[in-house]
Write a structure and sequence with these properties.
alpha+beta; five-stranded antiparallel β-sheet; 11 helices; 31% helix
Length: 402
């Protein structure tokens, strides 16, 4: 694994914008703009390194399944602060397995030693557009003879076909994001996923979640044409759904059982992607459950909900935090680095053994290994100037060399 400096393509801004990456710049704290898509460098991997990452991701997926069983059997939902009205639905959906599409494992890796799990973005992962499409087009432009760990697009299309065949949505799939995020990132991530669904032969309706309607007469969600929403993909975390004024309606009409008898008015209700059981994995309590289940596993770090215990070097992470906010890194009992304060942490904290990110030419990469339907499907790398990966990080493409 190495970081290579490159010259950016002439006209790269127009190129990646035309490919959907309208958020290719990031505003810095001083008001200046810095490239989010950074093709002045790339990461090169040997085939055996990619094999190691792929094996680790497959093993971690299986461990997460075991951890889900463990968490439900031992009452973790209450410890995680999941509201009582959602717990039975989470348990039922875990058993009936409504469709789930994708997720992203964030790993610490430097080409030596086993990859270490930092966290699992299981519910609302972003950077799928740049990982699946933009860096692939970059590779074809710059290094057409090289390879890349990237089967994301084909696997996504294939999974949508499986969903259509097994769950037979009655009508189009409604795909939602929140308009509160104004950079265009959420919209374009959803738009890309919508394109993969269309290529699988499905009809898609794009709809900001703020415009999702409720039919009080028939007690069902509807779109702007008052058509019922039978299947809904949401880039909107389940913990936000639980707190939303329409959250009770979502739980009331949630369809998680393919054998359930349809209601004469509502039909079968609404299938939500990602499914509600993803609330188990989207909470960083998962890290503690994994360590409790498999202490010493080579791809895991020690993690606890009740404090650092005997750890001297550790990270403190909010259970529901995002983009490095309210994360603290401690080395030798002293504060090493701290993320921005965005109000996370009241929901609880996990203390995880410290695995400092490696430094390559001044950049600190986190390797995001994508899973589609549980299968490792590709790699996206976000790089920061510090040990905490935050909303100022940049995306750096990769290739396989050798």
């Amino acid at each position: 694994m190495e970081r290579r400096r490159l010259e950016a393509r002439e006209g790269w801004v127009d190129t990646v914008t035309d490919q959907g990456l309208v958020y290719c710049w990031t505003e810095q704290p001083d008001g200046s703009l810095r490239a989010y898509w950074d093709e002045t460098a790339c990461y090169a991997f040997r085939p055996d390194e990619v094999d190691q990452l792929e094996r680790a991701a497959a093993d971690l997926w299986e461990l997460c399944i075991e951890a889900g069983d463990h968490m439900l059997e031992h009452g973790w939902l209450e410890r995680m602060g999941v509201p009582p009205e959602a717990r039975e639905l989470i348990e039922r959906s875990w058993r009936t397995e409504p469709p789930a599409l994708y997720g992203r494992l964030d790993l610490r890796y430097d080409g030596t030693g086993p990859p270490k799990l930092l966290e699992f973005n299981a519910d609302t992962p972003t950077s799928i557009l740049e990982a699946a499409a933009v860096q692939w087009f970059w590779l074809e432009d710059r290094f057409p003879a090289a390879d890349q760990w990237n089967s994301l697009h084909d696997r996504l299309v294939g999974k949508w076909r499986d969903i259509a065949a097994s769950w037979k949505p009655d009508g189009p799939i409604h795909m939602c994001w929140t308009d509160a995020q104004d950079s265009g990132e959420d919209l374009m991530n959803v738009a890309y996923l919508a394109e993969t669904a269309r290529q699988a032969g499905l009809d898609v309706v794009l709809l900001p979640i703020e415009e999702l309607g409720w039919d009080y007469d028939d007690e069902r969600f509807v779109d702007l044409e008052c058509e019922p929403v039978r299947m809904l993909f949401k880039l909107y975390p389940w913990e936000w759904v639980f707190d939303d004024p329409f959250g009770p309606m979502a739980l009331q009409t949630l369809w998680v059982d393919p054998l359930a008898t349809p209601d004469p008015h509502r039909g079968r209700g609404t299938i939500w992607l990602e499914p509600i059981w993803k609330a188990l994995w989207a909470n960083k309590a998962l890290l503690a459950a994994l360590w409790e289940l498999a202490p010493g596993h080579p791809n895991l770090l020690p993690a606890y909900l009740d404090g650092p215990r005997d750890l001297v070097d550790y990270a403190v992470k909010p259970l529901l935090g995002r983009e490095g906010a309210n994360v603290s890194l401690v080395r030798g009992g002293e504060l090493l680095a701290q993320g921005s304060d965005q109000g996370y942490g009241a929901e609880g904290l996990v203390h995880q053994g410290l695995a400092e990110l490696p430094c390559f030419d001044g950049g600190y990469p986190v390797l995001g290994v994508w899973l589609v339907d549980g299968h490792p499907a590709g790699l996206g790398i976000r790089e920061s100037d510090s040990l905490i990966t935050d909303n100022l990080s940049r995306f750096v493409p990769h290739l396989i060399d050798g």
